[in-house]
Write a structure and sequence with these properties.
This protein has about 140 residues and is α/β, with parallel strands linked by helices. About 40% of the residues lie in helices and about 35% in strands.
């Protein structure tokens, strides 16, 4: 089975504010794709979900059959693992989009990881925001 490990993170300055996403996609321990994108004004939670959606779309393009999602967002992990309900109107649409994409895989897992184990995705998300803010100056 074609399995991908996906590390995701979102960053928002001032929350809400200028936001970016970072995604690292790995196959058998090797990085196959990095994504660092500015997504405009958003909350940190919206950025986290947007990073997930980008990662899942990329996994589908890569014809993955299974994905392990790794995030340092406890809220995102608990919502997707159905431990928490999604109450925020700003998140419901993103949550629905993410669960729809997840249904395309034969298997998936949503794993909470400590922030220090997600530094790569964090760096990509923050770099996207910094790059966009420099252009505005």
């Amino acid at each position: 089975m074609k399995l991908l490990d996906i590390y995701i993170d979102g960053a928002s300055k001032n929350n809400p504010g200028p936001a970016g996403i970072g995604v690292i996609i790995c196959r058998e321990g090797e990085v196959i794709k990095n994504i660092s994108e500015y997504i405009g004004e958003a909350t940190n939670n919206c950025a986290e979900y947007t990073a997930l959606i980008y990662g899942l779309q990329e996994a589908l393009v890569s014809k993955a059959e299974a994905v392990n999602i790794n995030s340092d967002s406890q809220l995102l992990c608990r919502q997707l693992n159905k431990q928490y309900k999604v109450k925020s109107p700003g998140i419901i649409g993103l949550y629905n989009q993410a669960t729809h994409l997840l249904s395309a895989f034969k298997q998936f897992s949503i794993n909470y990881i400590p922030r220090e184990h997600n530094r790569g995705a964090d760096k990509l998300a923050n770099a996207a925001v910094k790059k966009a803010l420099k252009k505005k100056v």
